[in-house]
Amino acid sequence: MTTPRVLDGSSAGGQFLRTALALSVLENEPVRLENVRGDRPDPGLAHQHLAALETITHVCDADVSGDELGAETIEFEPGLETDSDRTGRGRLGGGEYEINIGTAGSVTLLFETLLPLATALESPLSVTVTGGTDVAWSPPLDYLRYVKLPLLRRFGLAAACEIDRRGFYPAGGGRATLQLAPSDLERVDLVDRGPIEGLRVYSTESASLAERDVAHRQAEGALERLGRDAEPDLEERCETTAESACPGSALVVRLDHGTGVAGFSALGERGTPAERVGEDTADAATRFLEGSAPVDRHMADQLLVVLAVAGGRVRIPAVTDHVETGCTLLEEFGIDVDRERDGETTVVSVPSPLTGKR
Question: Can you name a GO cellular component term (predicted)?
Answer without folding.
Answer: cytoplasm
